[in-house]
Design brief:
The structure is a single chain. The chain is mainly alpha-helical. Helices cover 62% and strands 9% of the residues. It has ten helices and seven strands. A hairpin with a 2-residue loop joins β1 and β2. α2 packs across α8, α3 crosses α5 and α6 runs antiparallel to α8. It is globular and about 70 Å long.
Length: 344
């Protein structure tokens, strides 16, 4: 508990420090919030602590690699560099006046941005944790779990028994690697996003879109004849309704992963926006009375976000398992029951 309060204090202190406007400058809460939740070519942890990430461009087949710090001068103003300019969070070819040129054909951006760096960090952390756990299983075979193994084993068993088995059925084992991966990937990144200076990775719709797309592809490639039959020849539906029902069913197939994508993106992003908005009230009202109230509400939201971080990982994994279960479920017995009812 003591460590948790130290972490919370650090988060509140660094967030308030980041929110504080420069001397003589006007505080703009919108700019602060947008800067935090958006991707960037540098990783800002606190005032004076910034990690400038590598820029990797392919311009008509020619590689250009340099540090993103070159886009900033001594006053931290954005300036062109080597024929390129940073504008609205993207890199463009620079025109004669230093603005983005009209022609950007052939320019590809493979830069390591803040979200990409955070992704690498979370993957390294996941590999470290679970290789350590795997080593513990081999070392302590037949013995009671210890350390990290004792903490994560109940969670793994919960995902297996309460999510995979309960929603997929006997064929659950083939889906366990994916379900465990997305559960811990989402949970770890949600928590890392709440750390001081953390990146908003799971609040990036491109990341949630890829996760949802993977769930969709696994669902479609796992689907049996019964799954496709219920889409293109829904039992109990008159044939003349097929031109209406088939598009509706196909839209339903796509809306399921779409809801996964939007739910995770919206919930995580909303939490970050609310916390930063509460801190912004201190600098907007510039009142001693508002300060403690804003910190109290931000503290409450921080603890709530710790719960949401786990809840969103659970919901994404649960719904993915439900979609897999629907794709591999055999419906013959249901059809037989339907025909049986027709004879009565």
């Amino acid at each position: 508990m003591k460590k948790l309060f130290i972490l919370l204090f650090s988060f509140l202190t660094l967030t308030a420090s980041a929110a504080e406007p420069a001397e003589g400058g006007e505080f703009k809460p919108g700019d602060l919030i947008t800067h935090h939740i958006a991707d960037d070519y540098s990783w800002h942890f606190a005032d004076g602590v910034t990690l400038y990430l590598p820029v990797i461009l392919v311009d008509n087949g020619q590689f250009q690699v340099f540090s993103s710090s070159n886009f900033y001068n001594e006053n931290h103003e954005i300036v062109p560099y080597n024929g390129y300019v940073l504008s609205h969070g993207h890199i463009y070819r620079a025109g004669a006046s230093g603005e983005a040129a009209a022609d950007q054909a052939g320019l590809l951006d493979f830069s390591i941005t803040k979200n990409v760096a955070s992704l690498f960090l979370s993957v390294a952390l996941l590999l470290l944790v679970f290789f350590t756990i795997a080593g513990s299983y081999k070392k302590n075979a037949g013995k009671a779990p210890k350390g990290l193994q004792s903490f994560f084993e109940p969670i793994v068993i919960f995902v297996r028994d309460e999510i995979a088995k309960a929603n997929i059925g006997p064929k659950y084992e083939r889906y366990m690697p994916y379900l465990l991966t997305i559960f811990f990937f989402i949970w770890f990144n949600n928590l890392l996003g709440l750390m001081p200076g953390g990146a908003n990775l799971t609040g990036n719709i491109a990341v949630t879109m890829v996760l949802a797309l993977m769930t969709l592809l696994i669902t479609l490639f796992s689907a049996n004849k019964s799954y496709w039959k219920h889409i293109f020849a829904t039992p109990g539906v008159p044939t003349w309704l097929s031109p209406i029902m088939i598009p509706v069913e196909l839209i339903g197939v796509l809306t399921k992963p779409f809801s996964l994508m939007v739910r995770l993106f919206a919930n995580i992003t909303a939490g970050h926006i609310i916390i930063l908005s509460l801190f912004s009230l201190i600098f907007i009202f510039k009142s001693v009375a508002v300060g403690p109230l804003s910190v109290a509400f931000a503290t409450f939201m921080f603890f709530l976000e710790l719960l949401v971080a786990l809840l969103q990982a659970y919901i994404f994994t649960l719904l993915s398992a439900m979609y897999f279960g629907g794709a591999v479920e055999e419906h013959d017995h249901v059809d037989d029951m339907g025909h049986g009812d027709g004879h009565h």
